[in-house]
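TOKENISED FOLD:
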Amino acid sequence: MSLPQRWWETRIHGLIRGMKMPLEIFVGLRYTRAKRRNHFISFISMISMLGIALGVMALIVVLSVMNGFEKELRGRILGMVSHVTVSSFAGPLQDWQSLREETLQHPAVIGGAPYTEAEAMISNMSSVSGALIRGIDPEYESGVSEIHQNMEFGALTDLVAGEYGIVLGSGLANQLDVVPGDRVTMITPQATASPLGFLPRLRRFKVVGIFEIGVYEYDRSSAIIHHQDASRLFRLDGGVSGLRLKLDDLDLAPQVRQDLKQSIGLEYWVSDWTLRHSNYFKAVRTEKTVMFIILSLIVAVAAFNIVSTLVMVVTDKQADIAILRTLGMSPLSIMWVFMVQGTLIGLIGTLFGLAAGVVVASHIDVIVPALEQFFHTQFLPRGVYPITDLPSEMKQSDVIKISLLSFGISIVATLYPALRASKTRPAEALSYE
């Protein structure tokens, strides 16, 4: 080994030992900081970083908004439907008060209320519409649903037994062209015998309130009356269809359902929201998964720009690679040197995208109104969409998953150029210098 060669080797290893850093990382970082003879390489490296940052930011923001929409819609739907319901196999539930007290003993149950459900026709002059009639007890209803928080006119407490008041969904009220104070006629499927034959049962109701949940399915078809009026109208002999239960954690609904089946007996049918609305929420989760895959392609395209960057770096550093090889560096070490460069590009892009995505997702409620004001438009017009604001719920698991995906793709993108660099032959590379 010649004296200059030995001197350089001793010098390099002395620096590495002083910095307590592996040789491959040290050289890779020096190459990353060094000025390029070909400035186009630096430009592509910058584009790769920006592309990865943009992809990571887009993934975080879009998934956070979709999480927010899912939470908002789930809250609105489950504000109208039950977390858990208990009904009797034998028909109407008569002694619902004692059953309510028994179910409230479960630690996860925080509210219970009787309900009656039936279908009927509601008419006003020439307007007729089918409706899902729900009989409630205003005293307990606020403990299991959020209808009382979404009243546009009136209140649930305006429903008094024997006075035959009715609260309509906003879409149903518009269809029937009624306002609070008007009267509508309810036509039930139960028939009444008369000298003229069997006639449908009719009853006049006074509109005492209008609610709007924000979900078209319920606003268009739901009507609420007192459960005692519903019992008389639908001939339930003072009974109700069942009990609605509210849980402190709605994700525990399947477990609570199993617990109640064992505690209250086999004569009762226990159901929960995951059985009734599972297809809807599965569709939402599938849509979120598809969006994640599609937006991941942005990160993939940007990350694979690292391939072209490193290929040009390898070509640009052929002489340097040959010198390092002659100084005793192994092909595997050469490979690690260039993997450090590509990994650093991916790491910087991921960190910038992570920071930008977290900031945007956390302030989406400020950014979107500012953009709407700047462009003089509304992205989600009221009357077209049930949710007019972009909700956002950033989950730590999503952020970690996106960061690991981006960083992992960046590492994979470095493999081919680094392997190509490790196969450089010193004699051939130096013969052109």
Notes: The chain has 17 helices and ten strands. The chain has two domains: 3-73+282-430, 83-274. The CA atoms of residues 90 and 215 lie 33 Å apart.
